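Researcher: For the annotation table, I need structure tokens for Methionine--tRNA ligase, cytoplasmic. Please keep the output clean. Sequence:
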Amino acid sequence: ITAAVDAWARGVAALPKPWRPQKPVLPVEGMRNVLITSALPYVNNVPHLGNIIGCVLSADTFARYCRLRNWNTLYVCGTDEYGTATETKAMEEGLTPQEICNKYNAIHAEIYRWFDISFDYFGRTTTSHQTTIAQDIFQRLLARGFLLQDTVEQLRCEDCQRFLADRFVEGICPFCNYEEARGDQCDKCGKLINAVELKNPQCKLCRGIPVVKTTQHLFLDLPKLEERLEAWLEQSFATGDWTANARYITRSWIRDGLKPRCITRDLKWGTPVPLDGFRDKVFYVWFDAPIGYLSITANYTDQWERWWKNPQQ
């Protein structure tokens, strides 16, 4: 309080001059460098106040605070554009998935400009950088033995001649009997669902009755990473600013033991899997989308690794 009163008494003239970073904004030796991202908004809707409050506003407020502190700050965001939700929206509007992404990316960008959200760069995930970086991470995981193959039972619509990804199938929830549960979760009771567990499943595209078939998929071998992750978490809990809720949820996952996680889908719209036997598949959006933070930064500057692989600064 004494310092604040003293600063107030000395007036605006005594304040340090505002930091004006060069463009593109890159880490500067000897300065506090802050990289800020906000959760990538999904591209298949028009943003409303709830989306802005829950997604970009808090990060924008923090970015403005950092700049006022004269910290060297980069704030990036962009639309998350792959996955079944985009395909579903494209079918509703009679457009291709790429046309849907182009349309709604422009709408998102314009709305955030209208609200004066202070992004240094607002990008998207359907870019060549996204493909390159995601496939590179995949190849590194493969080379280090962190991937495995397994056969999965999946619903297939014979009329549409396609396996049905999570959002392309609807049925009765096996837990609460809600009649419009999706193939990945029930919006009524909130429980996660495997699509083959749905009662009376229907294809959302043609309303046909799908059959259970087997298909090969790739999995991230999370149990192999568990020991290293536990050690890292203990260090991070001790030195970082984790909320009590984040600690509790993370510890519950570790306590129950990590399970292999499927990272591929039988879809057309997504980042292609660069491996023989799986080239007709794409990466599951929850493997692909977090990489969007890296690829969006790479679209902003070819020196993106100075932000993402530079813990000393």
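Researcher: And a one-line annotation?
Model: Residues 154-213 form a domain with the Methionyl-trna Synthetase; domain 2 fold (CATH 2.170.220.10).
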